[in-house]
Specification:
Helices cover 42% and strands 21% of the residues. By secondary structure, the protein is α+β, with helices and mostly antiparallel strands. It folds into five domains: 19-134, PAS domain (Beta-Lactamase, 2-Layer Sandwich), CATH 3.30.450; 154-313, Beta-Lactamase (2-Layer Sandwich); 333-384; 392-557, Heat Shock Protein 90; 560-696, Response regulator (Rossmann fold, 3-Layer(aba) Sandwich). The strands form five sheets. Strands 6, 7, 8, 9, 10, 11 and 12 form a seven-stranded antiparallel beta sheet that branches. Strands 2-1-5-4-3 form a five-stranded antiparallel beta sheet, sandwiched between helices. Strands 14-16-17-19-18 form a five-stranded mixed beta sheet.
């Protein structure tokens, strides 16, 4: 503006300018204007309003189009409001939201319309005018939000109801009920899928007024394509069974249980189908994406919660078994101690020397029982920690079975059982650890002897089946209920029906059998028709290739006798005074010169003066442990030719590695059979013996 020139206000806008300004505002607000000449029924719709009713811009639109394009569910209310706005007695404001179904495209849209009637002086409605806005996007957003909120409300409700539950079946039932009620379904069921990716189990379902679908099924019932999709994590969604499925694609199964529509949401974890949630409808039904999504969400959360419940139940069961095991262990250890104490008391009072031998036999038997208990516990520990070492070689199965039968003979004969054995006519080689394979079969024979009434029949057989060596141990004993057969091999498991025949035990023998068989690359299972129907345990081991002569396992009767030729000077170091005294007497009785000491300092003093051929050395000594004693015997006293053998209760692999590093020639774990100990001593004092010879003695 130039200085000094007067300011002239803009001229008042013309009517045309105002109309143009209004048009621009309406365009910017995406508002459509509509106008109806009521007396003639003539309708004016611009292109924007026509689009809301699915009518192209050039097409002619009438009031009939308006009426016919209203959604059937909304039409009555809209027409009532439109009529009321034109009623001279009411003259209401026309303010409605409704759906339209496109005349040309069939698309459903949402419209918000406002307007009013215009009346002449006589009160007659001559025009109806107003605006219309397409609110489809807003309504979709609101529907999505409402759907999400409903889904969250359902998931929260399921979580609140199932949170305190401690049984997986209860979680399944409650979840199926809440989901079924939410969807207004006919039936709803959660299913566990077995590891074979085929069999699935519905333990219970929500099925008000219709038969339950609980049971065990195969995925093949869904048809090949649907089963494949479920295994891949793709859901089965069927709106109309008769229209969409043939008999071979699941239609026959669904019709048999009165189902006309179904959603089956599969859950895949780590590449495997683990669970499914099925929702049934007895009439055809158009399942919405939201409904399928909520089913998918529920099966995911239900599975995760069930896994947590099962894990917690497993921990509680493990705690219960642990407590039972500790009680049983205390009982089993006390049992042999009592007769040993009685035998010792009688020996102190015994005047008849001929009866001393009977007392000694009692002590030997009970000590042997305790040794077996401890050995079993150590085996469980080693197997559980994965540190057991198999000394594999190619072996014929027949001598192994013979040795196992020999080992179990006292128990079998004591119960007067009749024992039969069937062996293959040709070698049946396996690649395994002889001692462990004998232990496996011995455990099964001992169980058969314990759980078969006296005078029963027990059979052992072996045969080659294709690429397997199959060993079976059968009996005519108490049998095993079907529901207990799967958990029979679990650690610390003792079945309640065996109480009267149990003869003690820790419930770990069959667990050891299973783990040892698996370490050999095999499998073990059991068959039993039920209580009092006997049992058959079947072991499958890989058949070994005959690339070399098959080793034969010698029986106890053929083991190497203790050498009576070489005697030596033996130093025994043991801080348990009873153990020291009895060990010295045992070694001395075999013709060796023996000195016993109870600590490391005394051991070094005696060794320096006496130069022993062999030192039997405990590790857990006071003040100076066995490792330090061995090191100083070698380093300080220069006893490089003296054999040092660890005789200790510490028998883990790391313990043996430490003794090797400290200069020990061999490592013996207590308790050791006296016969073997004497063999080790004889081998240790034999001129020219190597450490490997000592360890193998």
């Amino acid at each position: 503006m130039s200085p000094g020139k007067p300011h002239n206000p803009p001229a008042e806008m013309s009517l045309h300018d105002k109309e143009e300004q209004l048009r621009l505002a309406i365009e910017a607000a995406e508002v459509g204007l509509w106008d109806v000449d009521v007396p003639t029924g003539t309708l004016f719709w611009p292109a924007r309003v026509k689009a809301m009713f699915g009518i192209s811009p050039a097409a002619h639109a009438t009031l009939d189009d308006f009426v016919s394009c209203l959604h059937p569910e909304d039409s009555p209310a809209v027409l009532r409001a439109f009529t009321a706005a034109q009623d001279p007695a009411l003259r209401t404001v026309y303010d409605v939201e409704y759906r339209t179904v496109g005349k040309e495209d069939g698309v459903v849209r949402w419209v918000a319309a406002k307007g009013r009637g215009i009346f002449d002086p006589s009160g007659r409605c001559i025009r109806a005018i107003g605006t219309a806005i397409d609110i489809t996007v807003r309504k979709q957003a609101e529907a999505l939000q409402a759907s999400s909120q409903k889904r969250l409300d359902l998931l929260n409700r399921i979580e609140q109801v199932t949170r305190p539950m401690v049984d997986a079946a209860d979680v399944m039932e409650a979840t199926a009920r809440l989901l079924g009620e939410h969807l207004g379904a006919t039936r709803c069921a959660y299913a566990d899928v077995d590891p074979d990716n085929d069999r699935f189990t519905i333990r219970n379902d929500w099925s008000p007024g219709v038969p339950s679908s609980a049971g065990v099924y195969s995925l093949d019932l869904f048809g090949t394509q649907a089963a494949s999709n479920l295994r891949s994590g793709r859901h089965l969604v069927t709106h109309d069974v008769d229209r969409e499925l043939g008999d071979d694609n699941g239609g026959r199964m669904f019709n048999a249980i009165g189902i006309k529509a179904i959603v089956c949401a599969g859950l895949v974890k780590h590449g495997r189908l683990v669970a499914m949630m099925a929702v049934h409808s007895s009439i055809p039904r158009e399942w919405s994406d939201d409904e399928v999504q909520v089913i998918d969400d529920v099966v995911e959360r239900c599975w995760a919660h069930i896994e947590r419940v099962r894990d917690a139940a497993m921990l509680r069961e493990q705690d219960r078994r642990k407590d039972e095991f500790l009680v049983t262990l205390a009982h089993e250890l006390r049992n042999p101690i009592a007769p040993m104490l009685y035998a010792v008391a009688l020996m102190k009072r015994e005047r008849d020397p001929s009866r001393i031998g009977q007392r000694v036999e009692v002590i030997e038997r009970q000590a042997g029982h305790m040794v077996r208990l401890v050995d079993d516990l150590l085996d469980v520990s080693r197997i559980t920690r994965g540190i057991i070492e198999l000394k594999r070689e190619t072996l014929d199965i027949a001598p192994l079975l013979a040795q196992a039968l020999e080992t179990a003979a006292p128990l079998l004969e004591g119960a007067h059982h009749r024992v039969s054995m069937q062996l293959p006519g040709t070698p049946a080689p396996v690649h395994g650890d002889a001692a462990r394979l004998v232990q496996i079969v011995t455990n099964l024979l001992n169980n058969a002897a314990k759980y078969t009434p006296d005078g029963g029949d027990i059979g052992v057989s072996a045969r080659v089946e294709n690429s397997l060596v199959v060993v079976e141990v059968s009996d005519t004993g108490l049998g095993i209920p079907p529901e207990d057969q799967l958990r029979l091999f679990d650690l610390f498991t003792q079945l309640p029906h065996t109480g009267a025949k149990a003869h003690g035990g820790l419930g770990i023998g069959l667990s050891i059998v299973k783990r040892l068989v698996e370490l050999h690359g095999g499998m073990v299972g059991v068959r039993s028709a039920g209580l009092n129907a006997g049992s058959t345990f079947r072991i499958e081991l890989p058949l070994a290739a005959l690339v070399a002569p098959v080793a034969r396992v010698a029986s106890q009767a053929a083991t190497k006798a203790i050498s009576a030729v070489h005697r030596g000077r033996i130093l025994v170091v043991e801080d348990n005074l009873d153990g020291l005294r009895t060990l010295v007497e045992l070694v001395e009785a075999n013709g060796h010169a023996v000195i016993g000491v109870a600590n490391g300092q005394e051991a070094l003093r005696v060794a320096g003066e006496w130069n022993p051929d062999l030192v039997l050395l405990d590790l857990g000594l006071p003040l100076m442990d066995g490792y330090e004693v061995a090191t100083r015997l070698r380093r300080d006293l220069g006893l490089v030719k003296t054999r040092i053998v660890a005789l200790t209760g510490w028998g883990a692999e790391q313990d043996k590695a430490r003794t090797r590093a400290a200069g020990f020639d061999a490592h013996l774990t207590k308790p050791i059979a006296p016969e073997r100990l004497l063999r080790v001593i004889a081998e240790s004092v034999r001129p020219g013996a190597e450490p490997a010879d000592i360890a193998a003695a």
